[in-house]
Specification:
With 276 residues, this protein is α/β, with parallel strands linked by helices. 45% of the residues lie in helices and 13% in strands. The chain has one domain: Spore Coat Polysaccharide Biosynthesis Protein SpsA, Chain A (Alpha-Beta Complex), CATH 3.90.550. The protein is built from 9 helices and 7 strands; from the N terminus they run H-E-H-E-H-E-H-E-H-E-H-E-H-H-E-H. It has a 7-stranded mixed sheet with strand order 3-2-1-4-6-5-7. Helix 2 links the parallel strand 1 and strand 2. The longest helix is centred in the C-terminal third of the chain and has 51 residues.
Amino acid sequence: MSTRQTIHYSVIVPAYKENGNIRPLITRIFTALKQYDSPVPAEQVEVIIVDDNSRDGSVENVQALQHEGYNVRIIVRTTERGLSSAVVRGFQEAVGDNMLCMDADLQHPPEYVPTMLAALSPSATFVLGTRYGKGVEMDKDWPLYRRVISAGARLLALPLTTASDPMSGFFGVRKEAFLKARGLNSQGFKIALDLLIKAKIAPDAIAEVPFSFGVRAEGESKLTGKVMIKYLEQLGELYWYKFSSLLVVLVVFIFVILVLLARSFLGSLEPASQHK
């Protein structure tokens, strides 16, 4: 049996200028998987780095890790950039039927990878790392403005999904559910939210794993004003995707009511005009 045939789990890591975080990320993931109580065997897991042509030594770093026996590979994109499209590319390239997405910056603790992967099943087709679970102090190490932005983004998404934290970016999906999604927004800021809506994930098919955000070790935050504007644009598109049929029904309903009112009003005028 080939190595590819034994892979049941794929961890996708979108990256840009994250070379300083790659080695600690990979070693911590596989250290967690090799623990005696890990629910997922390390030999059944692959890690895919989807790099947006960083040219910062990431390729050489991954090659060194491969020589040390880690099952990691890197895809370098030269004609496309963006977080969501990188995640989609990784899911498309994944060998495993159980796929997990996490950031390269170590804010999604690698020690949670085994639990997140194990939470996926034929009945739980989506797993979400949530910062709003019991016993979690949400984003405790973040500055106030980041916490306000995070809470506001979550509030705006509440009408779209019952998931407690679709903004965390630490999530997993079964391949069969991913393949059902149509019209994914490759330019969107939050691919998890896009997948929840467009793959039509039922509320009872979502497993949630509470976790606390780690602190970025290397590199700079990707949160910018441009990113926030893209998120608002994505929300608008998702609201239309999910509720457009309801809006059409509402417009038709209002139109019918107006026609009936008009007919009633005109009908009430007819006897008066005939009397004259």
